[in-house]
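The protein record quoted in full:
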Amino acid sequence: MKAVSIGYLYLFLTIITTVCSQIIIKWRVSSVISHWTMPAEIIGKLGFLFKVVFDPFVFLALCLTFTSGLCWMATMTKFDISYAYPFTMLGFVLVLLFSALLLGENFNSFKIIGCIVIIIGVLITSRGL
């Protein structure tokens, strides 16, 4: 596989793992963790945060975030940051779409216009390879 092709794989994995992590955290925070109460005392707060971090899905999301960082480092070995970074903005588009589809969040014309602007921006900056 050519170096540029593997670079796009790393970039794709960076975006996908980031998006999955964000959707999972939002799902857990809104469906389960929001029903938990944060204790007033500092030791209780630390225990609460420990409980949140080791919720299996939150922990998975944190692992995906770490994996995203590794993939990003691999991406940086194949592309200039000025070329690769605009592609990460596609993560915003995917989070918006998946949050509407999977979490029932609002999806309106302003968000659609914003997604179109992001995609146009990525297309324009990708011409700089």
The chain has a mean pLDDT of 90.
